[in-house]
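Progress narrative, work stream C.
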Amino acid sequence: MFESLSDKLESIFKKLRGRGLLKEEDVDAALKEVRLALLEADVNFRVVKDFVALVRERAVGKDVLESLSPGQQVIKIVHEELTTLLGSTNERIHLAPNPPTIIMMVGLQGSGKTTTSAKLARLFKKEGRRPMLVAADLKRPAAIEQLISLGKQLDIPVFYSRETQDPGLVCSDALRQAKLDARDIMIVDTAGRLHIDEELMGELKGLKDGIKPKEVLFVADAMTGQDAVNIAKSFNEQIGLDGVILTKMDGDARGGAALSIRHVTGKPVKYIGMGEKIEMLEAFHPDRVARRILGMGDMLTLIEQAQDAFDHKEAEKLQERLVSEKFTFDDLKDQLKKLRSMGSLESLLGMMPGMGKAMKGIKVDDREFIKVDAIINSMTRKERNDHTIINGSRRKRIAMGSGTTVADVNRLLKQYLEMQKMMKMMKGGGKKGFRMPNFM
């Protein structure tokens, strides 16, 4: 996310930090490069113009240029203005005083509305709420089946009807059912449409007037850049939006949509999709995203994801097993599974301050996790509980069963032993003689 923009901005600010004193022309030269970097990142031209003007106005002040570290001061100003541009604070979904809260999902075909509806329902369920999904996309034949499948996966009810082609009727029946079942959140997945299709937009407006949702959320594919921004603007003008969810942010190296959409539409980005997995939907925090763009990392989001993946009681049990030297290959497999659920290793490392730059050019292959998983799955229960019985012939069998090589099996065993050795030294207060095992 924002990879190309982050690299360019980091290079620009490195020059500023290297100067002891700054003059007005130094700031202008740096901001000229910032302007170009933002335009290349597909940020809206007017947004770039306003942003650079605001930064310049603050950065060429006497207090900044005559401070002990003017370069750092300029970067601080850029961070603050980026945060403001992105929306200043995280804006949550507003809940209705009388449940259920109706949330209407709108957007183009293929933007990811159906999957995002399920991801959003999952987040509400985690908060202790009782969400219900409504299949009101009656244009796409597979939409109902897709939502039913996602609902089963999450154990969240899905209301649908095969008896009518009227989404308004489906929604009114769903509302009655939600009240009967004491569901406090009702997420309506509507049909995707083109913003230039007046008939379909009129139908969507009629649906909104009929069900009176508390929030209308526009789901946009971030990788379409300025198209996403322009379409969001059109939807807002014709229907009225309360917020935006940007999908496929993990594949958007430029970031133009995220940086433009609030300024152009006046509507906040509330969530971002960071991958295809059902748990990969994050609340959008402007200050954290600004830090990521400037290569400062995002430890708060990383910690939140870790807390989400690792249960506190389970972590305590794992610690006991590590200390008592009962850590098995099954434990290792379980921990790697939890780590993978947090996202790609590349994205996790990118949240650590300085790691994005340190890992530049190094490809972190998540498929290595799959290889380790396959090797452990090819072991017998006895082998997983007692690595000492894994002799040469067993290693050959494990390699054949997992589709890997004996060298791969040997490497995993060596890493596992290194981890055990490390835990023994930590237990005994040792400080040297071990390396952190590397499963890549």
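Work stream C, second folded protein:
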Amino acid sequence: MQVKIQKLSIYLRDWINYFGIANQYQQTVELDGWIRCRIRMCYWKQWRKPRTKIRKLMKLGIEKQAAILAGLSSKSYWRNAKTPCINKGLGKEYLEKQGLYSLRDGWIKYHYG
């Protein structure tokens, strides 16, 4: 996932440099949220087995009962990526620590920084 996130961050930086001139703040925020959700889905899909999902969520600071409920869920990957449990574990701070570039922050820096 590190390599995927690095490549995506490079692409997003270039994208905001090209399209950042537009006054489309709300669409940038929505796209940024969609990208983070998509990355959460990729993590969830990569973990595959319920035992791994539960263990990884607990390692990310999710309480045991919530991690078990999320790990044993039979929802689709995309729907699971939107749940509060996974949003908390794989939140914006975690993804930024992994190296994900934020379109929202890039747009703000482009216009006000």
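The chain is about 75% helix and 0% strand. No further action is required on this item.
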